[in-house]
């Protein structure tokens, strides 16, 4: 009997496939970056991640589109929250001429007190005092954020021109609480020096001194709120 032999096999096409071919190009670079066909790069990651993501996106176009919309909307919501946060103090208002500049300086002073921004407060109120920031940092840090938020309860009147510069009336629930007096020095607005000296002595902000008086925590000279 003749021994039955298996027909000769041809070369295995898989054995001759170039590992650098277009279908299976995987190039490991120094530093852990992996380049796969199509130019995608995964730094130190699994080379199959992008391939699987693409396959899933092509197989589920509606779901992929919906996911993209969710990502865009999430980004929009986050941006809206960021845009709604507290603005920074604008110290440039001290350079504004006339009564509008005086009013804006007082408004930004109130914002600086609410934010606890001692550097901006001192620039607005008395930039020539090198010890101002240290004093006001301590004064603001002693108050909670909810307490400092109450400076918004202090009302502001229309600025008025006076011999020394300008003044802005302060009020609490419609009741007059004196004025913030401003002078011009070096072409810019700042708080009257004597008023600033009183505030520094009390360790209080212009608006926080009124909140202190209302809360019966401290009375600072002319800057008082009724205790009743």
Architecture overview:
With 228 residues, this protein is α+β, with helices and mostly antiparallel strands. The chain has eight helices and eight strands, in the order βββααααααβββββαα. The protein has helices at residues 48-59, 61-83, 98-115, 118-125, 132-141, 145-148, 193-202, 208-214; strands spanning 26-28, 33-36, 41-43, 154-156, 160-162, 165-172, 175-185, 188-191. Strands 4, 5, 6, 7 and 8 form a five-stranded antiparallel beta sheet that branches. Strands 1-2-3 form a three-stranded antiparallel beta sheet, with no helix packed on it. A hairpin with a 2-residue loop joins strand 6 (165-172) and strand 7. The chain is elongated.
Assign the structural class, choosing from mainly alpha, mainly beta, alpha/beta, alpha+beta, or little secondary structure.
alpha+beta
User: Mean pLDDT, rounded to whole units?
Assistant: 74
Largest sheet: 5 strands, antiparallel
- Number of separate strands: 8
Rg value: 35 Å
Total DSSP helices: 8
Distance between the termini: 125 Å
Q: Roughly how much helix do the residues carry, as a percent range? A: 40-55%
Using the alpha-carbon principal axes, give the shape: elongated
What percentage of the residues does DSSP assign to strands (E)? 15-25%
- Which regions are unreliable across 5 or more consecutive residues at pLDDT < 50? 16-47, 67-84, 224-228
Order of helices and strands: EEEHHHHHHEEEEEHH
